């Protein structure tokens, strides 16, 4: 056992010694010209791919020679415009826009469900609420609040409005919404409503400020332009007026379906600016996408409730409105780049270094698949070891010493 342990320790010592001594060895490439067309084609092909990648993608597409800024300062102002006829009423922005003017979020009402003349009192709970159906008062627990219901139970079992069955009585705003709601037709004129979106963006690193509204010499020209124009990517890229129908179409949504369930649409403003050119070439591009989940019908869409309060005969009353609509979330992305020597040097050195991968790949192919007889490997790898020098004895001294140390067998023999 001791002998095995001793051999193990000796082997470990030799390994550590060899590793330590080999760590200080210096390796230098050896130039070896291989006359093999297959390997030459692979070598030049890999070189072409690497150089093409860096020239086309890194330098031209990604502009790796530029210093960039991706977190600009941005401000958004939105305003809904349009008038609609709803029955005998004329609706303006105060009626259907929330808020009528605001920041990066604005919504418009497309359809309403209204519950009129609600008052604080007691009435029957809706029969679809869990444990709301009853036959006697003992089936209803006084003071119990069901969070899926409409109010607090009084402990009485009452007739469900004009029906023959009974439900538990609750204290709430009566009549309840699910029983007395009136569904109004959709506001189809909203397809022609326009949303004014003003966006300013600032790149503090480069001290560049840009806006999405066309510059003009005087305010009168700007006002005339904004009152008439509608955004078009080719004809009017600096017009900030967008029709709701255009936004829905660009988001690949049917406006009629949006009127039924509502929806949330993202308005993405993208600024990609090459500041090596004149800043006037820095223009915004717009894209639109549905943000809420459409597959889950229970939670999809967009709606909210609000109430209009009033007093009738000294009793506080309200009209409850459940509004379905389109909510627009304006999201701004910005990226600006300008030439800088530091990223240019880094990218150039990286490209030159990456070309060396061609040699590694071809060496691997040569030594693994082509060098079956180890002809290339014998020439590829050499080990140079400096051996101790042995002093050379001059030929004359050797003869002289030989004569001193050895007897001459020809002594006394005549020549």
Automatic annotation (TrEMBL):
Keywords carried by this UniProt record: ATP-binding, Cell membrane, Disulfide bond, Glycoprotein, Ion channel, Ion transport, Ligand-gated ion channel, Membrane, Nucleotide-binding, Receptor, Transmembrane, Transmembrane helix, Transport
A GO molecular function assigned to this protein is: extracellularly ATP-gated monoatomic cation channel activity
The residues that the database entry marks as glycosylated are 192
Catalysed reaction equations from the record? Ca(2+)(in) = Ca(2+)(out)
* UniProt-listed InterPro entries: P2X2_purnocptor, P2X_extracellular_dom_sf, P2X_purnocptor, P2X_receptor, P2X_RECEPTOR_CS
The cysteines joined by S-S bonds are: 123-174, 134-157, 140-168, 229-239, 273-282
Listed GO CC annotations: plasma membrane; postsynapse; receptor complex
* Record keyword Ion transport present: yes
The answer to whether UniProt assigns keyword Disulfide bond to this entry is yes
The record's listing under PANTHER family reads:
P2X PURINOCEPTOR, P2X PURINOCEPTOR 2
Tell me, what does this protein do in biology?
ATP-gated nonselective transmembrane cation channel permeable to potassium, sodium and calcium. Activation by extracellular ATP induces a variety of cellular responses, such as excitatory postsynaptic responses in sensory neurons, neuromuscular junctions (NMJ) formation, hearing, perception of taste and peristalsis. In the inner ear, regulates sound transduction and auditory neurotransmission, outer hair cell electromotility, inner ear gap junctions, and K(+) recycling. Mediates synaptic transmission between neurons and from neurons to smooth muscle. Receptor for ATP that acts as a ligand-gated ion channel.
Summarize subunit and interaction data from the UniProt record for this chain.
Homotrimer and heterotrimer; functional P2XRs are organized as homomeric and heteromeric trimers. Homotrimer. Forms heterotrimer with P2RX1. Forms heterotrimer with P2RX6. Forms heterotrimer with P2RX3.
What the record says about family reads: Belongs to the P2X receptor family.
**In its UniProt entry, what is this protein called?**
P2X purinoceptor
Q: Which organism is it from?
A: Eleginops maclovinus (Patagonian blennie)
């Amino acid at each position: 056992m001791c002998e095995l342990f001793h051999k193990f320790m000796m082997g470990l010592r030799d390994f550590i010694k060899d590793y330590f001594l080999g760590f200080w060895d210096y390796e230098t490439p050896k130039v070896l010209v291989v006359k093999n067309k297959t390997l030459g084609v692979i070598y030049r092909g890999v070189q072409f791919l690497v150089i093409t990648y860096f020239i086309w993608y890194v330098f031209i597409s990604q502009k790796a020679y530029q210093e960039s800024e991706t977190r600009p300062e941005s401000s958004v102002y939105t305003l809904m415009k349009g008038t609609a006829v709803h029955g005998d009423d004329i609706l303006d922005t105060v009626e259907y826009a929330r808020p009528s003017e605001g920041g990066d979020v604005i919504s418009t009402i497309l359809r309403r469900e209204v519950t009129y003349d609600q008052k604080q009192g007691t009435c029957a709970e809706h029969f679809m609420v869990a444990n709301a159906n009853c036959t006697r008062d003992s089936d209803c627990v006084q003071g119990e609040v069901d969070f899926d219901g409409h109010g607090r139970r009084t402990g009485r079992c009452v007739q469900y409005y004009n029906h023959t069955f009974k439900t538990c009585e609750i204290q709430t705003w009566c009549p309840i919404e699910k029983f007395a709601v009136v569904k109004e037709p959709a506001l189809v004129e909203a397809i022609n409503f326009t949303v004014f979106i003003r966006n300013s963006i600032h790149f503090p690193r480069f001290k560049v400020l840009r806006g999405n509204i066309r510059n003009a010499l005087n305010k009168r020209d700007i006002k005339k332009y904004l009152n008439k124009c509608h955004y078009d990517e080719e004809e009017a890229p600096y017009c900030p007026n967008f029709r709701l129908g255009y936004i829905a179409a660009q988001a690949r949504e049917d406006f009629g379906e949006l009127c039924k369930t509502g929806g949330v649409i993202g308005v993405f403003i993208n600024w990609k600016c090459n500041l090596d050119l004149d800043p006037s070439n820095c223009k915004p591009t717009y894209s639109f996408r549905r943000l809420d989940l459409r597959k889950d019908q229970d939670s999809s869409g967009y709606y909210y409730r609000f109430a209009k309060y009033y007093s009738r005969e000294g009793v506080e009353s309200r009209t409850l409105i459940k509004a379905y609509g389109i909510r627009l979330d304006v999201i701004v992305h910005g990226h600006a780049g300008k030439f800088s020597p530091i990223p240019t040097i880094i990218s150039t050195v990286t490209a030159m270094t990456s070309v060396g991968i061609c040699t590694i790949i071809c060496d691997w192919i040569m030594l693994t698949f082509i060098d079956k007889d180890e002809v290339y490997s014998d020439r590829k790898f050499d080990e140079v070891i400096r051996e101790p020098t042995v002093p050379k004895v001059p030929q004359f001294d050797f003869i002289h010493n030989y004569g001193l140390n050895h007897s001459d067998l020809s002594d006394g023999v005549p020549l």
